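Hi R.,

Here's the chain you asked about this morning:
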Amino acid sequence: MGEKFRKTSGVDLKEIIADLNRAYCDEWLAFYAYTYAAQAVSGQGYEDMQEFLQKIAKEELEHQDEVADMIIKLGGMPTVNFNEIEKNANAPFPMPPKKTDDYEKIIEFVLDAEGGAIETYRKIAKKTFGKEDVVYQLVTHILGEEVNHEEMFENLK
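And the predicted structure, written out as tokens:
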């Protein structure tokens, strides 16, 4: 983004970059957790649960990419050291359930993680609403997808 854009932004871009960087780390953790859960899921009808988890994992990776792109456009750099991902995230790694055939626990695990993502993107949306339209559009787009993930798994209950 251009210099004029940065100078006329109605928000503290350093703060927004930090918020986005934490969201970026969250997305990496979610991608890994959902990918692992999809690979490990077992039990009767596991293919459906595996498909749901793979779909969400793919979208979390897309979110990570979109957020990284925005961080760079705003003049920052996404967290580079993978060992720092969990440390810099908003929440700890969302640990998948140990019982890979306990679909209720898997659903709870996803709903908890998606709830955290919804909260994160709502906070950034509130900070940028009417002040930073480009970031606001990105985070509301991602927020909408996180809400869809939550609804998809609520419907499995």
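The chain has a mean pLDDT of 93.

Let me know if you need anything else.
M.
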